[in-house]
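Following up on my earlier thread - several people asked me to post the actual chain instead of describing it. Fair enough. Here it is, all 97 residues.
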Amino acid sequence: RPFNFYVHRASMTDESASPPNCDSIMVLVPCPTLARNEDLASLPRDEAIEVYKQQFGKGMVDDVRDAVLRRLSVLGGLENLSDLILDEVLDTPATYA
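Reply from S.P.:
Thanks for posting it. Predicted structure:
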């Protein structure tokens, strides 16, 4: 299902945001908030975060990533964007739980 997302190309205005002849692009995709679970309050933080991460499973994250890359690939110069990614960080709300 289609969704909106925000793209920021920091290297366009700040040369120090990426290595020479490269770009730095950040994509922010709106997503649901974490469903809080009171039972996790008694667990150590690391264990609780692992449980929260299950709300955003690898399949879901991969599907959203692929959809974003497909949508960006229709823009001139970005046809092979996925082949040009040198470094990538994927965060979900559980990253910051």
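The two ends are 27 Å apart (CA to CA). That should answer part of your original question.
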